[in-house]
Amino acid sequence: MTAKLLDIAGLSVRFGATAAVSEFFLSVARGEAVGIVGESGSGKSAAMLAVLGLHPPGTAVSAERHLLGGTDVRRALPRQLRALRGSVAAMIFQDPLAALNPLLPVGVQIAEVLVRHKGLSKRDATLAARALLFRVGIHDAGARETKYPHEFSGGMRQRVMIAAALAGDPALLIADEPTTALDVTVQADIARLIVQLQRERQMGLIWVTHDLALMAGIVDRVVVMYAGRIMEVAPVAALYFAPRHPYTVALLASLPRLDRKRASPLPAPQAQAAQAAGCPFAPRCGRRMAKCEDLPPLFEIGDSLAACWALT
Amino acid sequence: MSFSLPRLLGHRVPVTSVLGALGALLLAIVLLFAVAAPVLAPYRPTEIDLRQRLLPPVWVFSGSPRHLLGTDNVGRDVLSRIIWGARISLSVGVAASLLGALAGSTLGLCAGFFGGLTDRAVSWLIDVQLAFPFTLFAIFLLAVFGGGFVPVVAVLALATWVNFARVVRSQALSLRAQDFLLAARAVGVGTPRLLRRYMLPAVLPSIVVVASFSAAQAILTQAALSFLGVGVDPTVPSWGAMLDLGRNYLQTAWWMAIFPGIAIAITVLGANLVGDWLGAKLDPRGK
Amino acid sequence: MSALIEAAGVSLRFGETRVLSDISLSVARGETFALIGESGSGKTTLGRVLLMLLAPSAGRVIFDGQDITDFSRGKLRRQRRRMQMIFQDPYASLNPRMTIGEALAEPLVVHGLASWRGAREKVDAALELVGLDPAVARRTPDAFSGGQRQRIAIARAVIAGPELVVADEPLSALDITVQGQILDLFERLRAAMGLTYVFISHDLPIVRHFAARVAVMLHGRIVEIGDPGVMFASPAHPYTRALVEAVPVPDPEYERHRMRQARPPKAPISRAGQGGACPYVGRCRHAFSLCGEIMPPLREVSAGWQSACWLLDTSV
């Protein structure tokens, strides 16, 4: 049984009075790829930030279990957390411009990570950084390493960010909407790159997105989130061919496809529906019943878990 | 300000707000002096009483409770003169700042919005002004044409319009590229309304902030000018003139110079604190 | 059906760079026409030129039979009532310091269709038309979500009863679940008001369902134009084919297969499209000598379908 890279259960994240994430759980082992899908406001990004202890000050984070690379994050000192970030788990974001330092050349930024997490000398780090840039597809790495982030195109910048994330040789890679802002042809290339790297290094991968289609070829398992809660967890084939939760079904049906007839969109989300008890999706759900006023737990149905009374 | 005071009425209060409130308080006192001078001042500012000359403040041995801050070399009550002096300082400060704001913001807005020739012309004007030894020239002008409220205010406004023009121009330039302007153009909104309803509200916060600093600077400069002999109104004492007079009596009657000096410092401090607070409040929030 | 808006030989340079080269197209009244392309293709710029928010360096723009390219500022401003735009970023296209009510009344007042006070009724009607509660008129944009702001922007665009609406990536900044609703709204408005759309997007599946005709743009040129249903099923131009192949499908088997396909490292698309070669020559699998020398013209593939590729000539 492979050791789990990430083992988290009962995670809750609150901003003041709002619960951004409730009862979130996830475990990822080496070589596994998990997808987290949800709209904005579903809490997926907030959950990932909390996983790495990167949540903004002023947010209340609590968990029943929170192990990252074997270390209990809840009891870890800031120094220990910093060591974990980069060497055990690394994160890449949607906007490389925001994540990379605009004032340093990219080669230097990657070398910095190498010096800090792998203790390389400056010279060795520079060479290793160049090799990393080459590996992520920036072929004239020697020339490009002196350039600043804003001098790269969107796709190239994303590759730089991936290189920086990999520099610490992490076992777990969290990708938060890494391709959303990119052109569609570049999207495919970056996705392919990440998958290749994951396989090569046998990393664990968490791919967070609102684009269900892209995720299909990348992950083994999918977690569907809505209003901060997990609605469904399923192996990828089950999710796409036999979705259980009404939200998942509606989500899949609403995707416009090249090869299929007109999609049917979801009804409009309610403007900030109050934190009413019960299933958060009920107001928009076609299968709503009286029972939905109580929050449904996750039921096991086949290989999937789904939080819906209508499935019992 | 990255630290905050612990608990005031259960809320954490940022330092800038406390200082801002302090600044507002100081300015309020000065304003009160200016407005209510006839009522507040115990004596008329020009009332000479040679028998009471060079009296020290009340807390010093030979002072008198009838002249709390002492008297000057011809027996005029220092406290009354300071209270009356607030009129000059405030009116000059506000007028110069307003005039400078009007002129500078308009030019800056046009330069940033229209670009091209307008921008080049205004930028050239700004460069010329900045390169020029302004104060010397101002003093020269004033010495030649004499003092007086209007000339002094005009000269001070001339000194300060550049600050407004630069800030407003750079803001206008960056606003120009934004979608909401283009969207308004696409709707068919004409230039006058674009300037009035789109550009102006967006630059107004900056103008207000610059105005408070500019007023502070004007007050200081006016004090300096009257210290150098270029007055505003011979019938009303100004703090700068009091400084000028008191200069000769520093050893013997220090109160003649110190108190007007403190008055100037407090007013300028108040204006700067309020400016700081406004800057913090208006800037990071809006965008 | 007469053409509502046409571009004839439109080109645009910003300094040294050619942003648009020799664009000619014609959109019929009532049609939904799409412009598709990636970043740098010039689609947004073309959208703005069609509305004369940007002046072309060469070529003409013709609206409802009238050449508006040389119209004075005033004349153009009056035309705007008939041709409106919806922007990509619903957070940036509304004035944060104006209430919704004022923003919606503005097109009416500016074009003399109502007074500020009299506009109230129409504003309420427009808000209801896009599915919003008229009470929102009192508030400022920051109180609303992306989807709601986009509805407001749409209401503002249609309130004066335009004939043409250019929508510049109106869905890109929205969540996938909201996109469908806004697209539905576009459809309803089209039917109710007889609108003509120029729909700019980078999203092929959406264009497939929404547009009757689409022009694929690459580096400021149109490389293929025709019915998206037919075109995407069997692209004539290699670039269109690359775009279609890059679209993810929510089918794990298909996607895994697509992920596994080894791709040769891509040379960046050269700007050679200026002045001579085909803009796709750097990346095209089928490129041959002529492609690097002369820009292929748009040639007919079949009725209403054109492609700018030398392969058309070489195939029988």
Sheet with most strands of chain B: 2 strands, antiparallel
Which stretches of chain B are low in confidence, meaning pLDDT under 50 for 5 or more residues running? Answer: 1-8
Largest interface: A-C, 43 and 44 residues
Number of strands of chain B: 2
Task: Kindly report the spatial arrangement of strands forming the biggest sheet of chain A.
Answer: 7-8-9-3-10-11-13-12
H-E string of chain B? EEHHHHHHHHH
Gyration radius of chain A (Cα, Å) is: 20 Å
* Strands side by side in the biggest sheet of chain B: 1-2
- Which residues of chain A form runs of ≥5 with pLDDT under 50? none
Please work out how many helical segments of chain B DSSP would assign.
Answer: 9
Provide mean pLDDT of chain A, rounded: 87
CATH topology of chain B: MetI-like fold
Cα separation of the termini of chain A: 32 Å
**From the 3D coordinates, which CATH architecture of chain B would you assign?**
Orthogonal Bundle
Percent of residues in helices of chain B comes to: over 70%
Query: What sort of overall outline of chain B do the alpha carbons produce when their principal axes are compared?
Result: elongated
Could you please describe the fold and organization of this structure?
- The complex is a heterotrimer of chains A (312), B (287) and C (316).
- With 312 residues, chain A is of the alpha/beta class.
- Chain A is built from 11 helices and 13 strands.
- In chain A, strands 7-8-9-3-10-11-13-12 form an 8-stranded mixed sheet, sandwiched between helices.
- In chain A, helix 4 crosses helix 5 and helix 5 crosses helix 7.
- The model of chain A has no long low-confidence stretch (mean pLDDT 87).
- Chain B has a two-stranded antiparallel sheet with strand order 1-2.
- Chain C has one domain: P-loop containing nucleotide triphosphate hydrolases (Rossmann fold), CATH 3.40.50.300.
- In chain C, strand 1 and strand 2 form a beta hairpin.
- Chain C is globular, with a radius of gyration of 21 Å.
- Chains A and C meet through helix 8, helix 9, helix 10 and helix 11 of A and helix 5, helix 6, helix 7, helix 9 and helix 10 of C.
Characteristics:
heterotrimer, A: 312 residues, alpha/beta, 8-stranded mixed β-sheet, 5-stranded antiparallel β-sheet, 11 helices, 13 strands, globular, C: 316 residues, Rossmann fold, 4-stranded antiparallel β-sheet
